[in-house]
């Protein structure tokens, strides 16, 4: 620890690697670790059954046998509630869903999810309207780690993402907005790989879990651009969270447990208005520079379409726990994109666009002038699930950054890499 595999400013961001590591270790990681354990942030509402809109030949869910049955909590077979006593099939080499280490625990919290509105996110493909297909998942009981999901299925999804929806930009590309989607996805992919390496099933026979540092090196560390993209994605999401600070501070974190809810609010405030973050990295990513030039709005729409496709692809992930975290993290990224890039072109949340029907124009005024006007047509609004996804995503990225900061330099040295 102490020496990083990379140095200097994180490409296309405003802070350097050392500052990010330091802030993460001192402020972000401790706060986020606490925050995601609170009742508000540990339950995620999700439709786990996949209606894969692509590849109909394979049926809807290619590895359905790997999934845990979706039934109401009271109907759950007792063994599923106690993962350690599950009867297992040891020849399931493709996906370990249904095995103790991968079973999805859908602990219900009937007090969660109230007081928030349903509003569309133009960046995602979620059809997450309340119905019988939605389940509540306790994220704390379902850590993102190795599940044994390998082979053609995940390969095809990553291929579809990279080749059809966010091809790598040519080297030397200087237009930041053309690089953004690839970098975000590559950063997320690196983070998923890091969590697989950090929580790996080392010995199936004895159910021994530990770190797989060779995998970490092969999939992430030996490609400096993947490390760089991870830091980029982390700073991008951090910027989204701090940009939406006023909204997130006022949001309702009520789960019916006043003591816990007060703690959630206090932790949130410490994250949103942290003087150490503001001093060391006040603007983790500068979104105001984007979409300004000619063709900017069209490019933004194209990227929005591509991101929606990526969001739809999550329904094709053939391993239940991977799908859970894939959906959560893509929703989290979509929420960050919505915060930073949606809103009628207005990039500053301290401003509001107002529409004057008689004159037929939209104008933008500082918030302090607003009291004289009644019609507000642009205001940031987030769903509860979006806030949960955004915060959990930031925590996942923070854990990944912390892990490679701690073990990265010595691994790279041992393996003779960068
Ligand atoms: P993959 O990680 O599948 O990579 C495929 C190809 O993509 C590589 O050959 C390389 O060319 C390129 N690539 C790899 N990393 C990057 C990067 N950071 N940036 C740019 N290009 C890159 N498995 C689990 O065990 N647990 C999980 O929780 C889990 N979650 C998943 C979630 C999703 C949404 C998907 C699609 C898959 C998930 N998987 C998970 C599977 C896992 O990501 C791998 O696909 C699997 O382990 C096989 O790895 P691989 O070595 O074939 O390389």
Structural account:
With 418 residues, the chain is mainly alpha-helical. It has helices at residues 17-35, 39-42, 78-81, 152-165, 176-198, 213-221, 224-243, 245-250, 258-272, 275-280, 296-313, 320-341, 384-415; strands at residues 43-47, 134-138, 200-203, 208-210, 351-356, 361-366. The strands form 3 sheets. Strands 1-2 form a two-stranded antiparallel sheet. The protein has a two-stranded antiparallel sheet with strand order 3-4. β5 (351-356) and β6 (361-366) form a beta hairpin. The radius of gyration is 22 Å and the shape is globular. The chain binds flavin-adenine dinucleotide (FAD). Flavin-adenine dinucleotide binds at residues 144, 146-147, 149-150, 154-155, 157-158, 186, 189-190, 192-193, 196, 219, 226, 317, 321-322, 325-326.
Structure keywords:
418 residues; 46% helix; mainly alpha; two-stranded antiparallel ribbon; binds flavin-adenine dinucleotide; two-stranded antiparallel sheet
Total DSSP helices: 13
| Distance linking N and C termini | 15 Å
Note the beta-strand portion. Answer: 5-15%
Number of strands: 6
Secondary structure blueprint with pairings:
Elements: H1 17-35, H2 39-42, E1 43-47, H3 78-81, E2 134-138, H4 152-165, H5 176-198, E3 200-203, E4 208-210, H6 213-221, H7 224-243, H8 245-250, H9 258-272, H10 275-280, H11 296-313, H12 320-341, E5 351-356, E6 361-366, H13 384-415
Helix pairs in contact: 1-9, 1-13, 4-11, 5-6, 5-7, 5-13, 6-13, 7-12, 7-13, 11-12, 12-13
The site of flavin-adenine dinucleotide (FAD) has 22 residues, from α4, α5 and α12.
């Amino acid at each position: 620890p102490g020496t990083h595999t990379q140095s200097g400013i994180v490409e296309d961001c405003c802070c350097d690697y050392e500052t990010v590591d330091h802030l993460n270790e001192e402020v972000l990681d401790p706060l986020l670790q606490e925050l995601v354990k609170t009742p508000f942030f540990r339950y995620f509402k999700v439709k786990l059954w996949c209606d894969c809109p692509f590849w109909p030949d394979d049926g809807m869910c290619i590895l359905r046998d790997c999934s845990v049955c979706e039934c109401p909590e009271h109907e759950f077979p007792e063994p599923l509630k106690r993962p350690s006593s599950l009867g297992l099939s040891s020849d399931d080499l493709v996906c370990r869903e249904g095995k103790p280490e991968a079973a999805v625990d859908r602990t219900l919290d009937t007090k969660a999810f109230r007081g928030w509105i349903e509003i569309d996110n133009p960046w995602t493909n979620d059809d997450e309207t309340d119905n019988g297909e939605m389940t509540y998942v306790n994220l704390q009981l379902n850590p993102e780690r190795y599940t044994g999901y390998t082979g053609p299925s995940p390969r095809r999804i990553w291929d579809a993402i990279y080749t059809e929806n966010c091809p790598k930009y040519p080297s030397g590309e200087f237009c930041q907005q053309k690089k953004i989607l690839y970098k975000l996805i590559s950063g997320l992919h690196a983070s998923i790989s890091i969590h697989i390496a950090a929580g790996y099933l080392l010995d199936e026979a004895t159910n021994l879990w530990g770190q797989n540092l060779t995998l970490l090196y092969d999939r992430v560390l030996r490609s400096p651009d993947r490390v760089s993209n991870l830091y980029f994605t982390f700073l991008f999401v951090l910027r989204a969270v701090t940009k939406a600070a006023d909204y997130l501070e006022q949001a309702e974190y009520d789960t019916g447990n006043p003591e816990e809810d007060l703690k959630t609010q206090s932790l949130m405030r410490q994250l949103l208005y942290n003087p150490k973050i503001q001093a060391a990295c006040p603007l983790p990513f500068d979104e105001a520079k984007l979409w300004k030039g000619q063709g900017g709005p069209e490019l933004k729409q194209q990227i929005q379409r591509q991101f929606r496709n990526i969001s739809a692809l999550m329904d094709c992930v053939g391993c239940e726990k991977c799908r859970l975290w894939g959906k959560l993290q893509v929703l989290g990224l979509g929420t960050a994109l919505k915060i930073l890039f949606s809103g009628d072109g207005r990039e500053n949340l301290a401003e509001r666009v107002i529409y004057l029907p008689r004159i037929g124009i939209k104008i933008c005024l500082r918030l302090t002038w607003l009291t004289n006007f009644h019609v507000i047509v642009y205001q940031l609004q987030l769903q509860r699930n979006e806030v949960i996804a955004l915060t959990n995503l930031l925590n996942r990225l923070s854990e990944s950054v912390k892990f490679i900061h701690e073990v990265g330099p010595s691994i790279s040295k041992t393996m003779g890499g960068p």
